[in-house]
Amino acid sequence: VPFVLAPIDAAKDEQLKSECSKQKLGKGGKVDVSFDSVAYGRKMTVATIKEPNLHSKELQDSYGVMSGEELLTVMLLPGEYARLQKKIQDVNGFKSFDDLENDAKNE
Predict the structure, then answer these.
(1) Single pTM value for the model
(2) Which among 41, 80, 88, 89 would be 20 to 30 A from 14, CA to CA?
(3) What is the helix (H) or strand (E) element at residue 49, kind and residue range?
(4) What separation in angstroms does the CA of 69 have from each of 23, 28, 76?
(5) Would the pLDDT of 80 be above 90?
């Protein structure tokens, strides 16, 4: 199945970063922020893929999953998934998901 990719915009990127960040009150009233870079990478990958429609209930049902993120992990071999993530990074103007994580942490 060929994949059709399109970059996301900065607003969508901010939404994904927000969804993958959690704040909790730490020692001395300090707010600690944690960032789930794995979830962020998966969400960005799904958001960038336009075809196949990873949100299709029919496609998800055929693989026995309930989300686009889960679908990719059962649909692709590990090497295929790694190559796809590299392409997703390129399409969105990033060098690596480590760069994405660093950008998110520095905001």
Answers:
(1) 0.79
(2) 80
(3) strand 49-51
(4) 23, 37, 11
(5) yes
